[in-house]
Amino acid sequence: MRVQPKPWIGLSIAIGYLLIILVTTLLILDDPGRFPSVRWALLHQVLPVGIGIVFLVIATSWLGWWRPALFERERKRLPWWLWILPLFFAGGAIFNFVNADRSAIPIEAMLAIAAGTVCIAFAEELAFRGGLLVGLRARFNEWIVWLVSSLVFASAHLLNVAFGDSLPQVLGQVAFAFGMGSVFYVTRRLTGTLFGAMLLHFLWDYAGFFQPSS
Question: Which among 20, 29, 79, 136 would be 20 to 30 A from 112, CA to CA?
Answer without folding.
Answer: 20
